Each structure stands twice: as structure tokens, then as C-alpha cells.
Amino acid sequence: MASSGAPPCSSALVPPCLFVIAMATLQSAVVFADAADTVAAYRPLSGSQRLLVSSRGKFALGFFQPENSIHWYIGIWYNQISKHTPVWVANRGSPISNPDTSQLTIATDGNMVLLDNSRTAIWSTNISKIASNSTVGVILDTGNLVLADASNTSIIHWQSFDHFGNTWLPGGKLGRNKLAGVSTGLVAWKARNDPAPGVFSLELDPNGTSQYLLEWNSTQQYWTSGNWTGRIFTGADVFSYGMTLLEIVSGRRNVERREDGTANILPLLAASRLVGGVGDGRREELVSAVVDGRLGGDADMGEAERACRVAFWCIQDDENARPAMATVVQVLEGLVEIGVPPIPRSLQLLADESNYLQFSDLLPSK
């Protein structure tokens, strides 16, 4: 006998409850596909209040205005740090005046472009050949902005890691791609509130050596890392640890100029005290002259001597004679004994300069 009530759900009819659930699911899928870390032709980035955020929230991409500046830029910054810290800027030398009428989008040729209020491109990824014009821009959790294929974002056509600003992020490569002919370096901001390229830059030596150069105005060498040996950079600051250690122990500058035109060279003074006391029982007396006088003699001379020995081993001319940092720590803790080092040749040459004090001048009389 047929029921007099409404028929139960059948295969021919979709219940209203399932229809609502299906529509809600479809809507959620559309929102998920339109990811908050992605800029596309149909989803440009515009306005000072709108951001793209990487999938785990580490980095943000958007328009920002440096402190005390009237200009706007589009860039990447740490999203989870309260102090605004930009790590990359697209339009460094071409600021915009109004972010609400500008937009970052994907052009018809597949490039990512920044358009001003007159829809003029003031910055572009500028890739000449893109296999597909269906591309998207994605901000990754590494801080890398990539121009990728929309159907497969692992296919990358361009990335900001190949075009550093003033910040080297983990995962990025600072060097030269011989196959692509691309050189990646760092260029300082012009001022604290102006990301335009400044006068200092860091890059791999364009002449083909394995050293990094810090240059002023791209012409004058300001600092070098020294060549890469396969294990260390020969001129890196960590290998000048000995000089730093001597300054810490003595409380003195590396070089102290005198009114008569001569100079007290701290490494020379320390070397003379350390080597001069060997074998005559005066080592503790001589090493005490290196220790910071403001301590009033209240210092462990054994520790001071170990520090001096480590310092001179760290500045040996032969890099293979320099101890590993693990050994340095063990010696300073008194766990490992280390011998009296030879005086580095560079210091001996320095001692021969007429405007510097000689070793004999630094040694006290018996």
C-alpha cells in the first residue's frame, strides 16, 4: 500500500539538503583554487590594504610605503614579524604614488607586470619567451616570488631569487649561472627609506675568481672574502677571529697611533710577549702586559696565554695551520693544549716598517 506522505529521496531526485551541501562544497573549492598566495590575470593585486601571503604565513607580498616616504613600492616582507622588514622590492627605482590605482597582474604575454594608474608597465619580469601565456605569480614560504605555469606551478619561468635586492634569504644562490649568463648579487638601499639601488654591492668576482667582492659604486673594492679553497674563504672574517680575540683580551684597538707618528700594533705586542717569554720563566710576566690594564691585574694569566696562542694560530699565513673552530673552543676551555705558534710572516714584515715599533722596542728589559 502506497504511503500518503511525501516520497523518500529517490535516485531521480536530488534532495534540497544535498543540493545546498554540494553548492557549498563547490564554492569552497573555488575559493581554495583562488589561493591567497597567488596573483593571476583574473586576480590582480591592488590597493594598500590587500596582501598575498605565503601558504604557511611566513612572507607577505603587497604594496608598502617606507617610513617618512611619500612613495609606494611593491615588495616582500616577513609576515610574522611586527616590525615591517622588506626583503625584496620589485620597483626599486620606480616608485608609484597611489597603490589603489596601481596593480600587479599577469600581462597577455604571460609576464608579471606592475601597472601604474595610467596602466603603464613600470616593472616586469621581462621574460622574452614563455611557453604558455597561462601563468601565475606565487609567493612561496621561502620568500621567493615565482612566475610559474598555472597548470603546474613547479614549472618556473622567473623567480625573485635570481634578482636579489639588499637581502640574501636562505635558499637563494648568490653567484653566477654560466649557462643562463645570469649573475646574482646584493645591492644596498640608497637610504633607510629609499630602496633605490645604493652605492654598495656584493657579488661574485666578475673576472672569474672564486671570491666575493664588496664594492663601492661598482668600481672600488671595499672588501673581499678571499678565494674559495673548497673548504673555506681565505679572507672571511671568521678566519680573522684571532685579531678579534686579541682585542677582547687586551681591551685595545688593533692599531694605536702615537703622536710621534709611530704606532703600537696590538698583534706585534702580543707576539713579542708570548714568544719572548719562552724558556726564561718570564712568560706570565710578559703576557700580563697584554691583558686589559683596567682589570687591575685581576685576571687568569693562564687563560690569557691560551687566548693569545689561539689568536696567533688563527692568523697563520698558511690556512692549513689554522685550527678548526671546534679546536679553538676546546683550547679556550682548557680541554686541549696547544703549542706556542710561530709569528706570522705578515706580522714580521709589518715589524720591519720604519713607522712601526720594532719587536725589541716592545720587550721589557730583564
UniProtKB/TrEMBL annotation:
Listed GO MF terms: protein serine/threonine kinase activity
Keyword Disulfide bond found: no
UniProt record, GO biological process: response to other organism
Keyword Signal: yes
SUPFAM superfamilies: alpha-D-mannose-specific plant lectins, Protein kinase-like (PK-like)
GO cellular component terms attached to this protein's record: membrane
InterPro entries: Bulb-type_lectin_dom, Bulb-type_lectin_dom_sf, Kinase-like_dom_sf
Pfam family, one: B_lectin
PANTHER family in the cross-refs: APPLE DOMAIN-CONTAINING PROTEIN, BULB-TYPE LECTIN DOMAIN-CONTAINING PROTEIN
UniProt name for this protein: non-specific serine/threonine protein kinase
Organism per entry: Oryza nivara (Indian wild rice)
Organism lineage: Eukaryota, Viridiplantae, Streptophyta, Embryophyta, Tracheophyta
